[in-house]
Amino acid sequence: MQRFTALLSAALLSAGLMSATAHAQDAATAPATGAGAGAGAEAPVQAQNFSDGDLQKFADASKEIATISQDYTTRLQEADGQEAQQEVRVEANEKMVDAVRNSGLEVETFNAIGQAVQQDPEMMKRVQEMAQS
After folding, report:
1. Left (φ > 0), alpha (ψ -120 to 50) or beta: where does 81 sit?
2. pLDDT for 6 beyond 70
3. DSSP of the chain, one letter per residue?
4. What pLDDT digit, counting tens, does each position of 10-49 carry?
5. Using one digit for the tens of pLDDT, what is the confidence trace for 63-81?
6. Cα distances (angstroms) measured from residue 133 to each of 60, 120, 124, 126
7. What span, in angstroms and rounded, lies between the C-alpha atoms of 103 and 61?
């Protein structure tokens, strides 16, 4: 159980990296207009009913992301200089995004489930059980 919690934590931290990168990319490409300037701000997670299928996809993707995160953490520590570290981060992020999409979820849905799991202990328990089966 502790191992899964550690994996889920790594996956959620990695998801945060994906989300931050996506927001940075959006901010870099979106024009800064007065009306839309705050539109990209994250709102609190609303109570959402995710299907068991989506939760299973989240659990599967989380395990894959945790593995990617562990692999790339080592590579990041071995990278020389900020530019090399940034290249490792970008590559890791791309692999994590691919893992989420290959699971059948969109990154936004994965992140929303991740936020909901953090806020709902019952949902976290369900996801843990799914990941262990």
Report:
1. left
2. no
3. -HHHHHHHHHHHHHHHHHHHHHHHHHHHHS---TTTTTTTSPPPPPP----HHHHHHHHHHHHHHHHHHHHHHHHHHH--HHHHHHHHHHHHHHHHHHHHHHHT--HHHHHHHHHHHHH-HHHHHHHHHHHH-
4. 565 555 555 544 444 443 334 443 333 333 334 444 557 8
5. 999 999 999 999 999 999 9
6. 10, 20, 14, 11
7. 6
